[in-house]
């Protein structure tokens, strides 16, 4: 048995393709997955097992952070300590004990402070991001003199960034992000009686106020104003957290794993569970990403790892924009990038799924199950021939939870340990 398991580990690997927010609801009898022309993925579906998956549990609306923890085989109710820490880790920030990290959005507000665009037009150029970082450094000097708390801000992808507070601080504060347009930025408030939480809330509110005031000086806003583009005149703070202590995926499941991702959050979650993290040219985390180099890298990594996780952000971005055609296009471009490697994929295992549904009609995460596909030379073949929400419910996998995926893969790879005698 040992020799068989060793052989399996050397000869087979898993390519796990994750369409972020890929799940959807039917509209006029179709969904983006159903409408997309994706011959490689559909061919794998026709030779594998399909099903529906609740990323966390039925009816639970997952965040990408909690969903990925579950998919990697970690109970998010046990291991989740806030999104900000994963964002910071994925952005390359070295978190120290006691640091508190937050996820941020650059946003646009009107003269009354009402949010009119939670993403400031979504695209932030590298030059604009650098200018914002300079502004935040200036605000940080003020904060440190006044509160004795140092801050670090780093832009990541598009409108996103991370904010790290270092000092006598706490993650137990409320978000300032109203999570919808048409509402004012919320004041941060302490969530317990700890003095550190009170100071942290005051610091966040000071950052919010100073950013709104000083953003008028940004050259980016002068350019944007002259063109009628959304101004970068607010910063929304949410998801405070600290670095959790997590057993590595190798120690827990005996899996050597790598992740190819362009989004800081996903790189952070992958790093936190002990995956080696890579990125590729063209993979930056937008709906306009190019996938040829990312897929090429992922296939190359399959020779060195038991599992290679490839994250596709564009489906979620298109969903939040209400862009049905754009979501279809992301799926089709990824499938096209797979075509040169179809023979290699046939010799290994392939998983295709989503971390949550983000219906184009809703533009937010929802709690319904998402389709899941498992292909492998020795995986039971069912009669599903198309990967989508409208078809996978008939598959042999049935309805499973996200936390089931990694143990299932470990079993197929011959890496799982027997339970009992």
TrEMBL record:
It comes from the Archaea. GO terms for molecular function: metal ion binding; phosphoglycerate mutase activity. Keywords: Glycolysis, Isomerase. Signal peptide: none annotated. The keyword Cell membrane does not apply. Its EC number is 5.4.2.12. PANTHER family: COFACTOR-INDEPENDENT PHOSPHOGLYCERATE MUTASE, METALLOENZYME DOMAIN-CONTAINING PROTEIN. This is 2,3-bisphosphoglycerate-independent phosphoglycerate mutase. It comes from Thermoproteus tenax. The gene is gpmA.
């Amino acid at each position: 048995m040992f020799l068989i398991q060793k052989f399996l580990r050397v000869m087979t690997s898993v390519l796990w393709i994750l369409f972020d927010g890929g799940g959807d609801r039917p509209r006029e009898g179709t969904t983006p997955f159903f409408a997309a022309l994706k011959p490689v993925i559909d061919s794998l579906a026709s030779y594998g097992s399909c099903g529906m998956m609740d990323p966390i549990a039925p009816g639970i609306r997952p965040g990408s952070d909690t969903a990925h923890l579950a998919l990697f085989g970690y109970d998010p109710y046990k291991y989740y300590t806030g999104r900000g820490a994963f964002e910071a880790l994925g952005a390359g920030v070295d978190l120290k004990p006691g640091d508190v990290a937050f996820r941020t959005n650059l946003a646009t507000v009107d003269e009354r402070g009402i949010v009119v665009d939670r993403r400031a037009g979504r695209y932030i150029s590298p030059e604009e991001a650098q200018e914002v970082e300079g502004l935040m450094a200036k605000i940080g000097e003020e904060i440190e003199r006044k509160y004795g708390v140092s801050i670090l801000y780093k832009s990541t992808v598009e409108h996103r960034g991370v904010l790290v507070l270092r000092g006598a601080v706490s993650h137990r504060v409320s978000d300032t992000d109203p999570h919808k347009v048409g509402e004012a930025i919320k004041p941060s408030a302490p969530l317990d009686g700890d003095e550190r939480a009170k100071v942290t809330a005051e610091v966040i509110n000071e950052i919010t106020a100073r950013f709104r005031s000083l953003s008028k000086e940004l050259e980016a806003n002068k350019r944007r104003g002259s063109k009628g583009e959304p101004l970068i005149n607010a910063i929304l703070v949410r998801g405070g957290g600290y670095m959790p202590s997590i057993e590595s995926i190798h120690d827990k499941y005996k899996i050597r794993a790598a992740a190819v991702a362009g989004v800081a959050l996903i790189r952070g979650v992958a790093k936190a569970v002990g995956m080696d993290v890579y990125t590729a040219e063209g993979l930056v985390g937008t709906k306009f990403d190019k996938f040829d180099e990312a897929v090429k890298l992922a296939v190359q990594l399959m020779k060195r790892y038991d599992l290679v996780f490839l994250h596709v952000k564009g489906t979620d971005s298109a969903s939040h924009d209400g862009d049905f055609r754009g979501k279809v296009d992301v799926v089709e471009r990824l499938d096209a990038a797979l075509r040169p490697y179809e023979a290699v994929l046939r010799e290994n295992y392939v998983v295709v799924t989503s971390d949550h549904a983000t219906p184009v009609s809703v533009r937010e995460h929802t709690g319904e199950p998402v389709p899941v596909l498992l292909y492998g030379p020795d995986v039971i073949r069912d009669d599903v021939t198309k990967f989508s929400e409208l078809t996978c419910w008939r598959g042999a996998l049935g309805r499973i939870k996200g936390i089931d995926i990694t143990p299932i893969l470990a079993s197929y790879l011959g890496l799982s340990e027997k339970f009992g005698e």
